[in-house]
Amino acid sequence: MMKTRKRATAISDSILGSLMTTNTAARPQNCGGRPAKTRRTRVVLVLAAFLLEGCGSTGKANSEATKLPQVAVVRVARKDLSSNLQIASEFLPFQEVNVYAKVSGYIQKLYVDWGTHVHKGQLLAVLEIPELQQQLELDEAAVRRSEHDLTRTQEDATQAQSKYEVADLTYKRLATVLKTRPGLVAQEDIDVAGGKDLEAKAGVSGARAAVSAAEQALKVAQAALEKDKAIYAYARITAPFDGVVTRIDAYSGALLPAGTSSNGDQALCRLSENDHLRLVIPVPERAVSDVHLGQSVAVQVSNNSQPFQGQIVRFSEQIDTQTRTMHTEVDVPNPKYQLIPGMYATVQIPLHSVKGVLTLPTQAVQISSGGHGTVLVVNANSKIEKRDVVLGLQSATDTEILSGLQDNEMVVFGEQSQYKPGELVVPKVVAPSEME
Q1: Do residues 71 and 410 make contact, with C-beta atoms less than 8 angstroms apart?
Q2: How many angstroms separate the Cα of 11 from the Cα of each of 2, 36, 137?
Q3: DSSP label at 69?
Q4: Domain boundary residue among 248, 272, 296?
């Protein structure tokens, strides 16, 4: 506008100079019966009108420009994209059990309490079982008696064997004499010797049977003793694995029922293995093919800025038909017990990644089905242009553009419904973070 005014002033000065020169060469006093002063006044008025008209045109143009809508746009840029599956889950102990008593008894000594860290085989409690102690004494007495019976039967068997050997030798000698010198020995003596031989042989068989029976009785008594000893050993309740006592259900002096009995629903305590936790993740069907055993994943806990590393160690290899997900488990080492079962965590499972591809913020794309979408482009004439695009990988914030756009093109960021194709706008490049 200042340039227009300067130009108009220059024109005015030039015209006035020409008029003054002409009027001086002619008659300055009179021109057509009118004074020169009047003609100069008219020229000034004409020039003023010209200047006002020029200023009005410029102001009108500026006013129209200020009425154009200002549109936030982002530029198409190349980035590296990666797609992650983010799922929230709850930490669970690697294993957790209720510790029951094998036999019923009174808690004589309790060595643990809430939060006690124990090792495998560590003593948790000792039960007092008087009747089982008496049973052990009876079993030991039965073993001693069986051992005595076995010794006696073995001696009887030895005696029977000796009698049989004497009787058999006597019979064989008499039979030999009868053959070599008939008539020297009476037949009756031979028959009596033969009968004693058979009787002694039968006595040996009976004695051996008695020895075998005594041996079996001893084994039965010993087995009963070992059984009761094994049961009595359960009076000492120990930890089945390294863990933390997360609950105490019974205290010293309480009667703890056997876990195998009908009323054995009361445990001594609950033991959790917390130095190794697991996360159960329902992986959606679309991501099942990208999940692999041994794959490392990032685990983030809300109240801890430090990320933890987990590993996919097992999955069901079957999709639940109701939820269309696959049961997947992630193991998270917890040697310092920084994590506690029950905490919520977010698991980031990497799926795909691409490098140096055309991208747009997801908020600048109207996504439709089949990997297609639409965008509003502000072209070189500052007009809105609707364009179809083919979409690729999508991350949490950006979307890959496979076709339909080129580098550095400006695309409307945000709501598209308030703009129409062909509309003239004023683009303003913004960062996506500014619009959040």
Answers
A1: no
A2: 14, 20, 135
A3: P
A4: 272
